[in-house]
Design a protein that fits this description.
The structure is a single chain. With 228 residues, this protein is of the alpha/beta class. It has a single domain (9-214), classed as P-loop containing nucleotide triphosphate hydrolases (Rossmann fold, 3-Layer(aba) Sandwich). The chain has nine helices and six strands, in the order αβαβαβαβαβαβααα. The protein has helices at 9-22, 37-43, 67-70, 90-99, 111-126, 149-161, 173-181, 190-196, 198-210; strands spanning 27-31, 53-55, 79-83, 102-107, 136-144, 165-170. The protein has a three-stranded parallel sheet with strand order 2-1-3, with helices on one face. The longest helix is centred in the middle third of the chain and has 16 residues, at 111-126. Residues 215-228 have low confidence and may be disordered. The structure holds adenosine-5'-triphosphate (ATP) and magnesium ion (MG).
């Protein structure tokens, strides 16, 4: 989640879903964005790649179908990943926080994005009551090239709030090429995938360390990956 548009919510959701699926976990991808970007991505996914159960949660249920029937997923599903639209606030933000165990916030390294992310984190804590509800929050620095001054400022702000930056995603056309094919970067040809697989391993590690069903719940903030 992030109220800021274009920061990489769909890219993170799709790549994380494909990474989880490729690791053998039954995975579902919920699309709450009426733009339907992750639903479109999933529709182009080749059949011979690990399956992901897609749910177009932005669609109103069809006549005669309940909302819970519309959102049903296979019982063995291990991970549900939710792609949310920009501009989230109020009751929708509250609902998504309530439904989720963990919250990942992609951030672009720009002053504008940093400010709106700081405001979004405030909403997440005040309106979404994320901390009060025991939800773990982590930042994913997206499209990083260098450690910009604004990123250093954001890091300081997050440090004060005890929110870890758990991964850095490179700015690379690999994400664009993978998205066009309905796959994740880790599913690209080996040479391309190798360079970009590290953040997805870090993110899944963090998820598993913080997983409520996992014995090792409660991860110390010190396990967060520092900026290089
Ligand atoms: N690390 C990256 N490297 C290169 N391109 C990227 C990267 N991350 C995202 N992009 C590109 O940036 C654009 C916006 O990304 P994305 O759609 O994931 O953002 P979003 O937060 O979901 O946007 P929206 O708020 O509209 O839903 C897309 O064209 C995507 O392919
Ligand atoms: Mg999106």
């Amino acid at each position: 989640m992030n109220a800021k548009g274009g920061c990489g919510k769909t890219t993170v959701a799709a790549n994380l879903a494909s990474y989880c699926a490729s690791q053998g976990y039954a995975t579902a991808l919920f699309d709450y964005d009426p733009q339907g970007s992750s639903t479109r991505w999933l529709k182009t996914r080749p059949e011979d790649y690990p399956a992901i159960c897609g749910v177009a949660a932005y669609e109103p249920p069809k006549a005669g179908i309940t909302r819970s029937w519309q959102l049903r997923i296979p019982q063995q599903t291990r991970y549900v990943i939710r792609d949310t639209p920009a501009g989230y606030s109020g009751i929708e933000l509250e609902d998504r926080v309530h439904e989720s165990d963990l919250i990942l916030i992609p951030v672009l390294p720009s002053v504008i994005d940093m400010h709106s992310t700081a405001n979004f984190i405030r909403d997440l804590l005040l309106i979404g009551k994320a901390r009060a509800r025991g939800k773990q929050i982590a930042i994913i620095a997206n499209r990083t090239r260098i450690r910009t001054r604004s990123m250093i400022k954001l890091e300081r702000f997050l440090h004060n709030l005890d929110i870890p930056v758990i991964a850095q995603i490179r700015d690379t056309q690999n994400y664009v090429h993978a998205a066009e094919q309905g796959i994740g970067v880790c599913e690209l040809a080996e040479s391309a995938a190798q360079r970009d697989s590290a953040p997805w391993e870090h993110i899944l590690d963090w998820i598993q360390q913080n997983d409520r069903e996992n014995d090792s719940f409660a991860t110390p903030v010190s396990r967060a990956m520092p900026f290089a």
